[in-house]
Records
---
Amino acid sequence: MGERFYVSAPPHIKSKYDARYIMHQVIIALIPPTIAGIVFFGGRAVLVLLISVLSSIFWERIILRIKGEKRPLDGSEIVTGLLLGLNLSPLAPWWIPVIGTFVAIVLAKELFGGLGFNIFNPALIARAFLLVSWPMEMTTWMSPFNGITQATPLTLLKLQHSYTPYINLFLGNRGGCIGETSVLALLIGAGYLFYRGVIDWKIPIPYVLTVGVLALIFKQDPLFHIMAGGLILGAFFMATDYTTTPITKLGRIIFGVSCGVITILIRLFGGYPEGVSFSILFMNAMTPLLDRWTIPKPFGYRTLGRNV
Amino acid sequence: MKRLLRPLINGILKENPILILMIGLCPALAVSSAAMNGIYMGLAATFVLVGSNLIISLIRKIVPDQIRIPIFITVIATFVTIVDMVMHAYAPDMYKILGIFIPLIVVNCIILGRAEAFAYHNGVIESIGDGIGMGLGFTFILVVLGGIRELLGNGTLFGLQVMPPSYKPVLLMILPPGAFLTIGFLQAIQRYRGGKS
Amino acid sequence: MLSHFLLLFIGALLVNNILLIRFIALCSFFGVSNSMSTSIGMGMAVTFVMVLASSVSWILWHFVLVPLHLEFLQISAFILTIAALVQFVELFLKKNSPSLYRAMGIYLPLITTNCAILAVAFINVSSNFSFIESIVYSIGVSGGYTLAIVMFAGIRERMASAPIPKVFQGYPIAFITASLMSLAFLGFKGLFGL
């Protein structure tokens, strides 16, 4: 019988939209938020981003060497490094991005089999890991332009019940992670990704809308909640990662809506001021189930028994 | 003496309950946030293990096969109750830390597992040896786990400051994810060294 | 009143998830979760037995052990109750619903050593829950167990075809996965003040 079937993992049809192309487009899309972050937070932001990207490349090289693989740089480590850096405070000490990229590249990605096989979003795993391990260093924020410490709009809301003006939220004149503060810059980047067909609307749009609607229901300002915190960054750049999110259309919409629900729950009722990272990570874990349960039935197909 | 030693060493190395057999996990993860906890938990479990192995081995010839499981459970539960009361009286702080995991020793897979797999079919001396061995293997891993997590997550070892003051402890290590992570890596190391120690 | 029970439920389901945060019932978690059908089966079996065992042990404690000042028999009494219950359920199912028996068959004896069931029995007593509270709590805990184990099974099935480094294949990567899942669940900390 020597016939063996070779089961490989998707994608099975390759096109121009291969990993390298997508990575390059994402890097380009991240340029506006990066510039905004540097404009508002100056040299410190440059430092954090630089360390993050460089150590990301470093860890990737090392782990590939250990594994014995010879893969050329495909940009994914730059994306991870950049995304993680944008998720950090400009005041983060140098070792934070170094450890963070180790966690992202080695723990969350390579141990699971490398690009395309990870279950969880590496940058978010790193961010959650860092936040839980070093809460002080991860929640010391900087006021734009002048370097003094300042709380984020969400923290200000949770602890002092004070609202930040819309224009600040939109342009980026507020405390927070390097990449999350300027909604304008992020939307430009996201727009570019839509234009290039790199991301699908079915996750970010339901995500953002759910947050807005739930905020309304709970008598909060929907526009504030959409623009504050890491929602725009998370919804358009992290929750759209193909590897860690559902394949099916219905699955994606459910993913987006569920993230919205969890984000609002944590923001309004939970112990942390921000819920974006955790909600996406939780839904990453649900993704295999979502894919399983939302497989579209071919027309006319009837199940004979209960297959789960 | 050899009848005692062989199963003893087996329990620590070749068939280490946590790393190899994958039983007795719950307390291993839950109490291993500090090395000292590991010692107390390990000793409590060892006491129960030795006691139950001893008794079960003694009565193995007269226990009817059909009701052996409830008999085992009763014997184990008795020893667990003793440990519970003794610890409550003489080590109340540790008793509070270990909390629900002391009474949970009664469903610790290791103890019931060894009763069924070993004590029921072997002599008294061997069973005592097996009990001590498995117990020590269990304790050993708990202390290693606890030590790693305490060192990285708190900068201390057995309560003594070991890391320099500039060390910023990795809080995650003393939280649940840290426990899973540590065991995962310990097992990977075990595997790297060739599966069985 | 309803919100009190809801909070109890959510606390048990998510915030203090029995598997990923409280580390209870791990043997079954790693042992059974390599396939979706066994995980769902185990989840259902655990739910069924846990709710039943919680009720019976609660009644036993409040109406027999305490009035007769036999509190020191708690450990023995509870575990024997659970073992007896499982045995009884097995026999009952075998006779009255053979298909269900076959479906749940293998898991039933395994459940006797399921730490979670015994743990919940203890917690019901130590937290001084009323009868209704202990039912709600046990539904929450078994729900959390089922959620975590089914989630884990889904992930493990997906990882089955991944090129995981040899040293980590099998249990090591399973533990790392559990670690990351646990990290995700940490986000619920402090939810509703729990």
---
Amino acid sequence: MMHADFETENIQLLTSRWERLRAGALPSSVGFSQATAASLLALNQGQVVRAATVHRPLFTLIPSEEVLENALNTDQARGVQDQDVLLFLINRWRAAAGSFTFAEMYFCMSKSVYSLLKAATFPKIQAAASVGVDLMTIGVRPQYFTHAGQRFDMETAHRTKLAICNSTNTGY
Amino acid sequence: MRKMENAADDWTTNPSVMLRLEKIIKLSQRTHFILELLALPQRDISLLKKHIKILCERTCGFYNPPRGNSGGPTRPNYFTTKIRFGLSVLMSLVNGSADDGLSDDGRGFGSGEIVDRLVNTYHLYLTLSKTTPDEADVSFEIFVYSWRNIHLGQAVMDHCENCGSIHYIFHNSPAQGCPVCCQLKLAVIPKTPSHASEVWAKRPTAIRRQSFVGKYDHTSEASHAAFA
């Protein structure tokens, strides 16, 4: 997977959530905390795109593996396919088709999630995207958006390092 | 004697160890460091040297190992802001995975999975930094020693309120501030009105800027006199 794929995913997911927040959606409905929503709403569209242009996925899978397993094992699609969730799942499914090292390093995947996605077929991924459960969560802290969005002179490599240091997966 | 030779040959016939060794020598060629990292017996040091030489000549084309023990970062002024920033990125990458069961069990680097993860993390760091092992801010040896020190409790994990980053405070480090804010030159974002006035008071003033310009301005007479 190339860096451009991370950027496409980040821009699409973050921009759609920013638009929903601006339209009056509650932060919890897009999977954000109050602080994350406040820091994202303080940015304009160009700044949101700048914050999303990073060589690292800003969204991660939800910690509960059971929810993902249930979503993948649904018999048929129940509702409308969520395009954001579909893109998110396809990228991880493609990563799981490769080596575990890549999936672990770039997508913070555990071995159990890796084997779940590796065993999944494309129709299962499509069905999981239409279950109606939000399978992703934001993987960086709220301060990231303020600094990465508002600093116009920050290089992409520096934004990537800032996103890595801001990762919520580090267990702090 | 025959038994000892057989024991020494154990790891040389193990393909996973040899593959690991091949990966490591691209990052560091120090014999004592590799011996410790791969948890090999001390008596095999000359055998390890031979293998490193063979592998180096096969992969890199030359063999030029550093002398002596590195000993890890022991000097008090070692942990500069640049190195602490690099270590923050590396440690976040190592701890970023949700996979569990890969903690140090106190026996050193006996587990091959830990070594693999450290090597892979360092390769990712080099890719992100667009640099080579020789030119990187944090060498592989320093990364491994710092990772061990953190697991031994010789460093404290800290969270910066301003940028939200995770960084580590080493006991022998003179700099204790956030390396991410410092290295990326992030602005201080005030949280409360009193904090805002504090930030405003600390801003660079016009007088300071004026004195700076006067000192280094090539058009000023003082500068000409200094360089004449």
